[in-house]
Design a protein that fits this description.
- By secondary structure, the chain is α/β, with parallel strands linked by helices.
- Helix content is about 35%, strand content about 25%.
- Strands 1, 2, 3, 4, 5 and 6 form a six-stranded mixed sheet that branches.
């Protein structure tokens, strides 16, 4: 069996913003790589992260867990996380689990950069800490 790995491309911008393009499959073996790389960027002062997921071929629940962990850590550091070009299967996973309510997703990296806009210049002083949270009623079975 060939070990899987991810590859990353980083673009850094003024205002503590980094765009991390992720290529490969995000699963049990590679999710820690994603989390480590994203948090390394955050520790280097890139408080606001955009993950471009266009080249991601697959993402399982381990990848979802990594995204949630990255979101939590960036928010605790006073930053933010957004996704760009989320593949359809991952979009469905984010929607089914309710994570799409916590994590902004954009059509592509350019749209994510544009939406981030003022934060790149220090205008977004308040992190999104929970503003996307909402209660969701659990489905009820019949009588």
């Amino acid at each position: 069996m060939v070990p899987r790995s991810l590859s990353f491309t980083v673009q850094q911008f003024d205002g503590a913003l980094a765009l991390l393009t992720v290529t490969g499959e995000i699963d049990f073996t590679t999710a820690p790589e994603l989390r480590d790389r994203a948090l390394e960027l955050s520790r280097q002062g890139n408080l606001h992260l955009i993950l471009d997921l266009a080249p991601v071929a697959f993402c399982d629940s381990s990848g979802l867990n990594a995204l949630i962990g990255i979101l939590r850590c960036t928010q605790q550091a006073g930053g933010s996380l957004a996704l760009a070009a989320v593949p359809d299967r991952l979009t469905r996973l984010l929607d089914l689990t309710g994570v799409s309510q916590l994590l902004p997703a954009h059509a592509d990296a350019a749209a994510a950069m544009s939406a981030h806009g003022g934060a790149a210049h220090g205008a977004a002083a308040d992190p999104p800490s929970g503003r996307h949270l909402r209660a969701v009623a659990a489905p009820q079975d019949g009588p």
